[in-house]
Write a structure and sequence with these properties.
With 326 residues, this protein is α/β, with parallel strands linked by helices. It has a five-stranded parallel beta sheet with strand order 3-2-4-1-5, with helices on both faces.
Length: 326
């Protein structure tokens, strides 16, 4: 009895009431919020990708001095091109060379940095790979440009017969009418090389080239490929009922592999601003692929390659034909 009396005489303690569950959750979230903010702040945004299209500079040379990129005039025009591309501030430059060529690219670039390589000693020294890619990389203090091409060859004259072939031919005639006069002008020095490449990267021409290669051919059905046409891509039996669609597939197959090579190069280098240099026919499809990838943001080359030389006339020539009458 004395024990129980002693217990009853002990002072009593009141436990604090537990806070309501919603209040505890709010408190916990407020403590974690600064940590989440810091984590989000360090997460990088999409990598910027700019695809610059080239009419291959090697092919511009027609044995006449006015067409030679080694001439002082064209060297000055290339310097202007590099200055404009430098404004993009790339931290990686990717070239139309296959990844297996990388050891040679690295070796040549090291010689170039050491002052031991003259482009004129290379058979392909007039090409944009060296005149723009190597020169710009050195100018910006970047590592050797990387090769991201997947080589394949398919000629436009491969698709030669079929229902609606006139649509395909009309697009190519329109493209040739828009581009060939410009090419002749730059070969005769009546159009600067900078303006020529700036015009080539304007949206109107990029869209026309893309449409001619990746859209209009789908209209062509029930035809065959020309035996004289060039094609190094084997995708199995050609369904002649969809010959135009198969033609598109040949181009798309190569560009998907180029796209994969670009993704790999960007991941390996962790570059945040990627400059891709490819032939003009690749620009539209690569931009389309990158636009659908949330990890990348497309920057159009026309943003940096400004020109007033014939832009209005080019837009008129490259305007889509809305009349689908053959």
């Amino acid at each position: 009895m004395r024990y129980f009396a002693a217990v009853l005489l002990l002072p009593t303690f009141r436990l604090p009431a537990l806070a309501p569950l919603p209040a505890l959750i709010s408190l916990l979230l407020s403590l974690l919020n600064p940590l989440a903010g810091r984590a989000q702040a360090t997460k990088p945004g999409p990598a910027a990708v700019m695809v610059v299209g080239f009419d291959h500079l090697n092919a511009l040379y027609n044995k006449q001095p006015e067409s030679d990129v080694y001439s002082p005039k064209k060297q000055a025009e290339l310097a202007k091109l590099r200055a404009q591309l430098a404004r993009f501030q790339p931290d990686a430059i990717l070239l139309e060379a296959e990844p297996r060529e990388q050891p040679r690219l690295d070796s040549l670039y090291a010689q170039y940095l050491a002052g031991k390589l003259a482009f004129a000693t290379l058979p392909e020294g007039r090409g944009e790979r060296y005149q723009v890619g190597f020169a710009l990389a050195r100018q910006l203090g970047l590592p050797a440009p990387r090769g991201i091409d997947y080589y394949a060859s398919t000629s436009q004259n491969l698709l030669s017969t079929g229902r609606n072939i006139s649509y395909f031919r009309r697009d190519w005639q329109q493209l040739q009418a828009a581009s060939r006069p410009l090419r002749r002008q730059v070969q005769h020095d009546s159009l600067s090389l900078y303006d020529y490449l700036a015009l080539a990267n304007q949206p109107a021409l990029v869209k026309l080239i893309h449409r001619a290669n990746f859209n209009t051919p789908a209209l062509v059905t029930s035809g065959t490929f020309a035996p004289s046409g060039t094609n190094t891509v084997d995708l199995g039996r050609v369904d002649t009922a969809y010959v135009g669609a198969h033609y598109i597939t040949l181009f798309y197959n190569r560009n998907l592999k180029i796209y994969s090579n670009i993704l790999r190069a960007q991941q390996q280098t962790q570059a945040r601003r990627v400059l891709v240099m490819m032939g003009l026919a690749h620009v539209g499809v690569l931009e389309e692929l990158f636009a659908a990838n949330p990890g990348y943001r497309v920057t159009h080359a026309a943003k940096y390659l400004k020109t007033r030389a014939g832009s209005k006339r080019l837009s008129e020539l490259a305007r889509p034909c809305v009349n689908l009458t053959p």
